[in-house]
């Protein structure tokens, strides 16, 4: 597999020229995150990902995690890589300084996470899920729970896992059956099985803090009767040292399409009636705690899609530049040529590149909104950014993960026959990234969340504000040859987004299913509109820097071309999407279920 | 994995009500192919595929073909299944009756092939490649060669393989280096290596007839210096019995993303300087012979995409009907509901269904055009159909294979987390079908062929005729509530196709690369237009039959809904495609290759 090179220059551009991370680093809390620190973190993370994590990507695919009598053993090299990862401080980038974290902005941590994921997606899931657990404990734990767990989890000494799904309770979490019965001493006995538990067991850390959703006796049905519990793999003594083994075990691993290096566990709690859990947060408030874990996880899954997509771009470009085959029509030097000179190959590469950059900017804007929503001193700014983050999260998750899959497939295509054999490594990207549209809420669930929950929030205040910003920005684009086409296409996209959002709002009052029928294309429409806007912002910034005589001529010129390509080739898909969305649900249910197949 | 049920009723509808196979069966050559025979062939094929081939699909995936000291051994059960396949006459459906074939139309054989492929894609490649070899020998072989090989190949006693690709010669076949030196006795010594040879060796048949492209001494460079050779695995004695082992061997198998049951061989010819080949056709005319093999192979690969897509539809529908999860908004009965009641899941299923049916109709129209082009008594009709088949072949290959991949991915998505674990089998479809857009000429090559060769043929006569037919048909659609939306969207699509084709024709005279930059979206645009037209034809036929009181109410009603869904949700993508196509190549090459990645 080709080396992965972290796109640090690109990421700095997104953070500084596109989403303006300075608004975040201006906050007192982040005063240490100077430009130099940002650059240094990105460079060091890129180096670590390239040198340590990337070489293990194919290793983990070939020899996945294994279930042994002593529990799950990670793929060769993963334990050592994890130790280095923790030692170098990568588990603690955004961690709360009160518990030993570095307290850097989530925006920067998210940028680092893209590199980690692109280098080794299977590996990256362990820190991602630990982060989810940390956030839950931080938000809902007692002072004592925080004292026991957080420092060790932030330092990477202990890991975390999230235990939600059961065989009959996937998307419908409320159907779960795992039980938590009071033991009389304030603790609970947990019994039940969870499936699809990512990194549910492993040998990377000395302990694993499982967060488990379960029902206390007599709880109401559905999501209202769910509580959250801390179930450590090893019990913890009062002095913080490890006690006995808790009755929480991985009993089998899934045989999966991809991410073989990430153990997907069936977890059994209380098989020997001796699983001890500690309630976290209030009884019956487990869903709220779960959403704390899940929201950032959704952004992270979108970022995973971007990471896969970046890796696909690098592999496809390298292959296309090396592969000599035939003569390219329109080439200025005599052939044979590398296939990168063929127009259709270039179409594929530019499609991957431009959608990757659009989705990256989207996820980083989302992360920035989360930082401001949490830490800005002004309540109005916090609220506005909370609303923006709520709106963007389903977009990040679904658009990021969808383009990850689409671009991996395009990159396989660029490889031709070599894309279908496993040795080149692009097939692994194609397999690995396919999980992203599924987990942490399928993309259909994201679309439902967008249309059903996020659009109506506060009377539609947040989407109106976002589209107003985009519309106003678009109007300010110069009427030059360079920007006119982009401007026209973006204006169409903004208009289509507004029209469709208004249509959906009306439908919500009449026939919710009519609105939901178009939810997936609407999510795509809005994502492409936001993506096009952010690329256009970057292009305008690049033009300004070029006009000011900036030295990075080629790089900045490429930003403009990429934004224009996206506007010209991707943004027009919004025309068809608008038509699809506003067609409603009539034909969706026109055929009885049993007539859908022979 | 869910059972595969051959869509026989659907296929009969396509053949009789959509593409009018009666025009083919009216020909004297096909007088035996009565409606009853067609029905019986489809039913029997469907039964065989379901009972024999489909159960081996997962078997072949888990235990792929193996290379042993005695050559390649197929997956467990494949040899017995193949024997039954041949015994039941499935290898000889379209075979020339002069050599023991049943002489049925290619259109019918193509319908059968879809079932075989959907049931077991890896298996289906063996008969497909044998068919290619048969066609080449039939078209270019001497009477003696035909006498030696054809009967045994058509009966399935011997297999065939096609040996084109070499490490440096994939799409650019002209770069191949395999040598053929005259032995002095009319035969040739072949030396060289071929890669990616599908079913290049196996134990299903007692002999394998390799067709090998090679260069004779002093041949001109490029495609003009290539000749075609018959290289049997076992030499053939004068009485037709098998002689000694020829020096043509599989020396390794590829480790692939999918179709593990289909051995993809590296073939070594003349490693011991003792590989005997027999020239077929004239010296230096190997490319013509290759295109004979390849044209039908391209249609078959498109059909493979349709087959994968049908299987994906069946698996996703079955899963969605069984999987109870949450409450579906807009459902008329209280929940919990099967996920098939959710609008977004229904969108995915209807998308798979409608695109599968569109692509199926396209491939069958293509097959029909090939039948008429070969066998119609009227020269003008033959010419017109030859032109139509030439035009449709890249569409069948690329659209069929692309929707195969897209729909397999959608079907994985419908399965949620269960789609990512291998046990449900949908992941296998996703992996297997990914080869279709690549082999037999990548889809980029198909798009180039469409724009560069097929559009300009005879001054654009064929595409103009096709779009004229579609336009006229569209005009005749009734202005009823049922058909109006479909009619409007189809008229837009026809107009977009015409406008883009005209634009491309102009560009071809000015800047060919400008035309080629939009070749892939143009191929998609034209495919969707033709697909929408064929579904509309079916819908109109269904409406007529319903009005006449036909008993198959639900089935016919479903045809109309499916055509309308396609017109409403898929056809509008042509709006964006038109915009992409006419944007030209300017931005494709705006970034120097080395700036595409960090």
Can you describe what's shown?
Chains A, B: Residues 285-450 form the Acyl-CoA dehydrogenase/oxidase C-terminal domain. Chains A, B: GO terms for molecular function: flavin adenine dinucleotide binding; oxidoreductase activity, acting on the CH-CH group of donors. 2 copies of one chain form a homodimer. In chain A, the strands form 3 sheets. In chain A, strands 3, 4, 5, 6, 7, 10, 11 and 12 form an 8-stranded mixed sheet that branches. A two-stranded antiparallel ribbon of chain A has the order 1-2. Chain A has a domain at 455-598. The model of chain A has no long low-confidence stretch (mean pLDDT 96). Chain A is built from 20 helices and 12 strands. In chain A, helix 6 (106-119) packs across helix 9. By secondary structure, the first copy, chain A, is of the alpha+beta class. Chain A has helices spanning 8-18, 22-25, 35-53, 57-62, 78-87, 106-119, 121-140, 143-155, 286-322, 343-375, 379-415, 417-420, 426-432, 443-454, 461-476, 481-510, 512-517, 519-547, 553-570, 573-581, and strands at 66-68, 71-73, 158-163, 179-182, 188-198, 207-215, 226-232, 234-236, 242-245, 248-253, 264-269, 276-280. The interface between A and B is large, with 110 and 110 residues.
């Amino acid at each position: 597999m080709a080396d992965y090179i972290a796109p640090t220059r690109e990421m700095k551009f997104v953070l500084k020229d596109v989403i303006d991370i300075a608004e975040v680093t201006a906050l007192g809390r982040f005063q240490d995150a100077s430009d130099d620190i940002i650059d240094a973190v990105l460079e060091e993370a890129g180096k670590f990902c390239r040198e340590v994590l990337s070489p293990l990507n194919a290793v983990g695919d070939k020899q996945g995690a294994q279930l042994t009598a002593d529990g799950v053993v990670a793929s060769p090299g993963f334990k050592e890589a994890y130790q280095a990862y923790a030692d170098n401080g990568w588990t603690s980038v955004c961690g709360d300084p009160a518990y030993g974290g570095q307290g850097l902005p989530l925006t920067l941590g998210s940028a680092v996470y893209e590199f980690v994921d692109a280098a080794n997606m299977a590996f990256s899931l362990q820190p991602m899920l630990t982060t989810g657990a940390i956030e839950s404990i931080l938000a809902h734990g007692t002072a004592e729970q925080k004292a026991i767990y957080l420092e060790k989890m932030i330092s990477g000494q202990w890991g975390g896992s999230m235990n939600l799904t059961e065989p009959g309770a996937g998307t419908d979490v409320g159907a779960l059956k795992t039980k938590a019965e009071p033991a009389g001493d304030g603790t609970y006995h947990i019994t039940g099985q969870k499936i699809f538990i990512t990194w549910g067991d492993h040998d990377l850390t000395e302990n694993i803090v499982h967060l488990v959703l379960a029902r206390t006796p007599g709880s109401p049905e559905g999501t209202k009767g769910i509580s959250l519990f801390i179930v450590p793999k090893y019990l913890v003594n009062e002095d913080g040292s490890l006690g006995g083994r808790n009755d929480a075990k991985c009993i089998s691993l899934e045989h999966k399409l991809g991410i073989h290096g990430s153990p997907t566990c069936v977890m059994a709690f209380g098989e020997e009636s001796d699983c001890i859990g500690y309630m976290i947060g209030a009884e019956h408030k487990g869903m709220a705690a779960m959403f704390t874990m899940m929201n950032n996880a959704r952004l992270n899954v979108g970022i995973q899609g971007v990471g896969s997509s970046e890796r696909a771009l690098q592999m496809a470009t390298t292959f296309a530049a090396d592969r000599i085959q035939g003569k390219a029509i329109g080439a200025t030097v005599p052939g044979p040529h590398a296939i990168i000179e063929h127009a259709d190959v270039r179409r594929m590469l530019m499609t991957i590149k431009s959608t990757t950059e659009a989705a990256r900017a989207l996820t980083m804007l989302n992360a920035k909104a989360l930082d401001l929503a949490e830490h800005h001193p002004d309540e109005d700014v916090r609220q506005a950014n909370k609303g923006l983050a709520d709106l963007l999260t389903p977009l990040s998750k679904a658009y990021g993960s969808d383009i990850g899959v689409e671009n991996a497939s395009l990159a396989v295509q660029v490889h031709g026959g070599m894309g279908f054999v496993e040795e080149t490594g692009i097939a692994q990207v194609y397999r690995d990234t396919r999980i992203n549209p599924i987990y942490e809420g399928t993309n259909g669930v994201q679309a439902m969340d967008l249309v059903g929950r996020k659009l109506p929030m506060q009377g539609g205040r947040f989407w109106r504000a976002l589209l107003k910003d985009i519309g106003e920005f678009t109007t300010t684009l110069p009427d030059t040859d360079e920007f006119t086409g982009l401007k026209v296409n973006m204006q169409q996209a903004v208009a289509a987004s507004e029209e469709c959002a208004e249509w959906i709002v009306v439908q919500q009052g009449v026939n919710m299913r009519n609105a939901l029928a178009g939810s997936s294309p609407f999510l795509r429409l809005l994502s492409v509109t936001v993506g096009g806007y952010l690329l256009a912002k970057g292009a305008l910034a690049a033009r300004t820097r070029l006009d000011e005589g900036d030295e990075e001529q080629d790089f900045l010129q490429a930003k403009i071309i990429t934004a224009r390509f996206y506007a010209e080739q991707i943004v027009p898909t919004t025309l068809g999407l608008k038509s699809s969305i506003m067609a409603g649900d009539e034909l969706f249910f026109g055929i009885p279920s049993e007539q859908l197949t022979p």
